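Take a specimen:
=====
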Amino acid sequence: FVINRPIDAQQLQAMQDATMAPEWVNSAERLAELCAQWRQQSLVGLDTEFQRTDTFYPKPGLIQVASEGRCYLVDPLAIDDLSPLAELLSDPGVLKVLHACSEDLELFNVMLGCVPRPLFDTQTACAFLGLGLSIGYQRLLQTLFELEVDKEETRSDWLQRPLSASQCHYAAQDVAYLEAIYQRLQPALEAEGKYDWLMAECEQMLTPADTDEATHYAVRFKQAWKLRPQQLAVLQALSVWREKQARSRDMPRNFVVHNQSLMAMASRPPRSLRELSQIEQIRGRTLSKDGAELLALVAEARNRADADCPPPPARPLPSTWSKRLKVLKALIEKTASGLNLAPELLVRRKELEALIRSGMADGRYVLPEALQGWREEVIGKPLLKLLTEL
């Protein structure tokens, strides 16, 4: 199935015209009217622009919508009722087409309390078609349509008003071609029997593992497995405290206390403000504002019994597994190559290691959740079979 060919000249001109004259939507009444129209369509293209330099939560600057050959720029700073947009995002009858949407999903969730479902992520679709694991929008247009677009406004201030003509053109460009991309990729996925795989993958993107649970905070640190029980308890206590502070203060985690500082406090628990002041990357304002509370958390965690400490994170696989790991990876690469997929899309390293750890003690290997679904027949069961033979 040929997907990389120039786009029809008339269709191209229409899309380029749409990027030059997007409609600016800055009233709740007009948004409600448009959302009612968009919900009558089979699909819409979506994108967002936001700022996130010194905050925990992204600050919405713009929401772009493409529908029926037109582009719309929705101003979330001017509209106090965005509920019609939330209804559009939640409408099961309208397919939402986005590109590389992980940050957009977070923004929609924060701003509207929902995510676009059903979802077709064009970057993920490209990965299923052998076009690269994380192809950018600009490169994708060049690959599919031999079309060049500029990216001059990538780092613009999207909270300023009014936006410049250049910003509006750039923002409209990011959604104008999404329907054409979908029309090119969807038949290719169907032809290769991968469309259902893609939609299952996109659904999984909408329901990520719950990383908000406190038990997960400490295991974000790659070296946490090296810590003793009480040290891990310190890291866990400090990580939970920092997460709460980052959210309540709307500050990036590292602006509250740096990762390096948390690991240093866990490895060498400070007992006084003087010792705390010697921790790597501790800021003066952290000492004065939070120092006493941090020391109290450290002291409490240090005195816990082993049984009350968090369970240790998984250790790296032992070196005795290196040869067997190569054999397993060879199977993954061969299978991925036969399917025209990136190996990382088929099986990620952490999933492979989770599979191995599940049966290291007794040889009873269990597929992790991420290797179930469509992956179970394609690679899950072959991996289980190979593991019993190694």
Remarks:
- Strands lie at 23-25, 43-51, 59-67, 70-74, 95-98, 119-121.
- The CA atoms of residues 130 and 340 lie 5 Å apart.
- The first strand starts at residue 23 and ends at 25.
- The mean pLDDT is 93.
